[in-house]
Write a structure and sequence with these properties.
globular; 18 strands; 16-stranded antiparallel β-barrel; mainly beta; 3 helices
């Protein structure tokens, strides 16, 4: 028994040393919230996961191989802290699983990666395109991440950074089901931040190419930041053809307290005219550098048979009582980063 314990301790110390040498980091976010929402006929109270941040844990690291170059990797799992289940059944690292090489020339990654449309959503509104308050979180349709993908991200030059992505699909090949082409361009300089991102993804049956595009910009004046955003989705396989527009503002009262207010509208360009719009507000207080509490109040109006819900960053929202119902309500949540 003693020899076994000593061997286990030696192995553990060896693993710790290897982790420290290769720069491996364990990280995560736990986000839980309470919501009280009228879904059409009555109010429903519920506890949910992942309203402002998708709850996750992961491993990431890098190794310096000389010449200013590094080998990098990231493995990330999404989960639901309210019941302990995986966010995606059967996938250990459903969010990200990639390895890459970086240097002063940029970075190349291979594996499962976040799409640039998802990655750049925070440019679109004052809510970071998350929580029930964000109309872009509730109304946009796009592919969040793709597998079997190779990407290149340029270095930042004069505030500009570009990325290009090519996905080889579910069975391999640039024209197979699940294959994709994506790109984005970001600009950050002084008080101005802006982005444009695009994706074209083959659907699961390889019968159509689903596209999404977004553009957003913000301007900061002392403690206030004004945002304007636009998104469009064209998915012929589900007869989706919509444009989403939004304007919002954020005011940073103190380094630990901010409030945000915004309006978002969706225009359905099909004959159904299933339009929607939303007005919402949010407040957040940082208890520490790793822990924050937040609250939202939202009113989303669905027209005709539109069935958009008050969703979260990785939460689908409570189901509507009937198609066309207009959900409204509040949420109060907390997240902790480690």
């Amino acid at each position: 028994m003693k020899l076994g314990r000593y061997a286990a301790c030696a192995a553990l110390l060896s693993c710790n040393y290897a982790h420290a040498d290769s720069g491996v980091t364990l990280y995560g976010i736990v986000d839980e919230f309470f919501q009280y929402v009228n879904t059409g006929n009555h109010y429903t109270a519920a506890v949910g996961s992942s309203s402002e941040w998708a709850s996750r844990f992961g491993l990431k690291g890098s190794e310096d191989i000389g010449g200013g170059n590094k080998v990098n990797f990231q493995l990330e799992n999404g989960f639901n802290p309210n019941n302990g289940t995986f966010a995606s059944t059967g996938q250990m690292f459903n969010r990200q699983a990639w390895v890459g090489l970086s240097g002063n020339w940029g970075e190349v990654r291979l594996g499962r990666q976040n799409s640039p449309v998802f990655y750049d959503q925070g440019y679109l509104d004052a809510f970071g395109a998350s929580t029930q308050a964000s109309g872009f979180s509730n109304l946009m349709t796009y592919v969040v991440r793709t597998s079997n993908t190779v990407s290149y991200q340029s270095p930042v030059i004069a505030g500009l950074q570009a990325g290009v992505y090519a996905g080889f699909g579910d069975a391999g090949g640039l024209r197979s089901a699940g294959s994709s082409y994506q790109a984005d361009l970001q600009y950050n300089s002084g008080p101005i931040a802006a982005t444009v991102a695009w994706q074209a993804v083959k659907n699961a049956t390889n019968s159509s190419t689903d596209t999404a595009v977004e553009a957003g910009a913000s301007y900061t004046i002392q403690k206030a930041t004004i945002y304007a955003g636009y998104a469009a989705s064209r998915w012929t396989d589900i007869n989706l053809n919509v444009n989403v527009y939004g304007i919002s503002g954020k005011y940073q009262f103190t380094p630990t307290v901010f409030v945000a207010l915004g309006y978002t509208a969706l225009h359905d360009k099909t004959a159904a005219a299933d339009n929607a719009n939303q007005i919402a507000a949010m407040a957040q207080y940082d208890l520490s550098k790793n822990t924050s509490v937040y609250g939202t109040i939202s009113y989303l109006t669905n027209h005709n048979q539109a069935s958009y819900t008050l969703a979260g960053s990785a939460n689908p929202g409570l189901p509507l009582a009937y198609p066309g119902a207009s959900p409204h309500g509040i949420s109060i949540g907390m997240f902790h980063k480690f």
